[in-house]
Amino acid sequence: xxxxxxxxxxxxxxxxxxxxxxxxxxxxxxxxxxxxxxxxxxxxxxxxxxxxxxxxxxxxxxxxxxxxxxxxxxxxxxxxxxxxxxxxxxxxxxxxxxxxxxxxxxxxxxxxxxxxxxxxxxxxxxxxxxxxxxxxxxxxxxxxxxxxxxxxxxxxxxxxxxxxxxxxxxxxxxxxxxxxxxxxxxxxxxxxxxxxxxxxxxxxxxxxxxxxxxxxxxxxxxxxxxxxxxxxxxxxxxxxxxxxxxxxxxxxxxxxxxxxxxxxxxxxxxxxxxxxxxxxxxxxxxxxxxxxxxxxxxxxxxxxxxxxxxxxxxxxxxxxxxxxxxxxx
Length: 329
Description:
Layout: E1 10-17, H1 20-30, E2 34-41, E3 44-53, E4 62-67, E5 80-89, H2 93-103, E6 111-113, E7 116-122, E8 128-134, E9 158-165, H3 168-177, E10 181-187, E11 196-201, E12 209-214, E13 225-232, H4 236-247, E14 257-258, E15 263-268, E16 274-278, H5 307-312, H6 322-328
Parallel strand pairs: 1-4, 5-8, 9-12, 13-16
Antiparallel strand pairs: 1-13, 2-3, 3-4, 5-9, 6-7, 7-8, 10-11, 11-12, 14-15, 15-16
């Protein structure tokens, strides 16, 4: 038995976008997620960092973006998270297809995957995303945000990520080390025809699945691609033990980095995918009350002293609200 706590699943997924206003409009108004944090890229404060999640920013619900406006469109391929999937309640895909028609969202035909119905679509930057119908248990930890969509159909955190890799075995070994177990294999749909999709499952209720699909398709980072995927290591002790376990694979994880709302360790897997380990605390309400999440530009740590300079370099954005949307109709 492993001497470290298995990850309960995905913590967040961070992607690259283009226009920041278009990014906010889509993820807040069209998809109905809450902007729980409006900040900056702590490694590049000239760019925003947006966090979209459920009402409380529950671990396993945060889709985050770096809107790097000067970058070009990326190419999804090997060594990347190729698909990010969200859970939605059973029977809600008719609603989502109708909403996508109303908002001009590009989507594909539904597919069946491991006994579940999946609706693939793309965000305005071309990022491949999916909605997966699941039964939401009564004790589910997510708290749906209902400003733009009804609770009965609202997104309820992550379902899974799909990794496109050239060599499956090192990735499978890494996921087993992180505490995931193989849950099945089937012929892949929506990827390279004829390839097999292998699913690994964590024990947590949200963001439990990681699918692996082999491909040699070339990739390039840019708009519409995933920057990294973060997995939950709830406490510092969990994270330290997982860091040592990852290191035993010959990988080179960073030291712990304070990201203000969680503490992080990063490493690039042999498949090329950038992984992060993220703690549960202190969370998004550590610097804003729950009722005001996302309402202002938060500049963590030493960045606050540079607020005037940083704000001058950022594009002005407006956060959609249901009231303003109704006024525009």
